[in-house]
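Deliverable D5.2: sample structural annotation.
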Amino acid sequence: MASSLLANPGGHSRRVDLSQSEALSRGERRLVFEHPDDPALLIKVMRPDFCGPNGQPRRRRRRKFRRREGVFVYFTREIDEYIAVRISSGLEPAQLPISPILGVVETSLGLGLVVEKVTDGQGGLAPTLRHLLERGDFDQGKRRKLSEFFEALIAHHVVLYELTSENIVFADDGTNPPRFVCVDGIGSRTLIPVKSWSKAANTRKILKCRRELEALIETSGAGLSGSAVPSRRWLARAHQGVALLACGQLDDALGAEVRNRDQPVLQLDPCVVEACAAALYQASRFAV
């Protein structure tokens, strides 16, 4: 009951009707709605095609352990981790590298997890890291903010079971300094929570996630707008791609066939193709 009271802005426990609401986001397991009574809050509910009426997954692997909480174990993981980070760090919710959790509430679509809405300053959802990369809006300033984000995850021992470019968003609401925030995937899902017990083990996991995301950023050719300086890795790939284009070895920026059929077909790394296309676009700014 206490968490329901926390989740309801009106201060009383009741079922929140989401039947007339449209999902703002659709994930593999969950739907995200704006709270009908408070636009500053979001409600995460399980997808009906993922969660059965009994709270158990509709498709369950054989011999898999049946949990009492069913698929809502994702909720308990996030709540447990948020409490652990909030208490151990001593920071206010707005200072954390994860989105604040307010509690749980009953909805017309089942049990919902109520979280604070992370915005872009105009009332809309904050853009994900993937969206920033796709629209070319990832400069050196955001690169520094991303580094600070990973440093905060390590410093405050935030345990994550999943960290991708889809669940990292850039918060810039005008009231707090712009920063990256993890909005999903926190908590431990292993039987023996080694990363919860060991900060060193958790740091290794976060550093691995960081390397994977930095590789994604490099191969996207992002961070080249404005006064940003391209990385050596990006320049090397771009130089190789431009050389291949100059030799007539590519049909276009998306192909990898050699024009001269007497020569063996050259298989290009897709990263080179992407960097090549980006290099041509940036040719007026950078010499490669």
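Annotation notes: The beta strands are 25-26, 30-35, 38-46, 101-107, 110-116, 168-171, 179-182. Residues 199-220 form the longest helix (22 residues).
The annotation will be released with the project's public dataset once the embargo ends.
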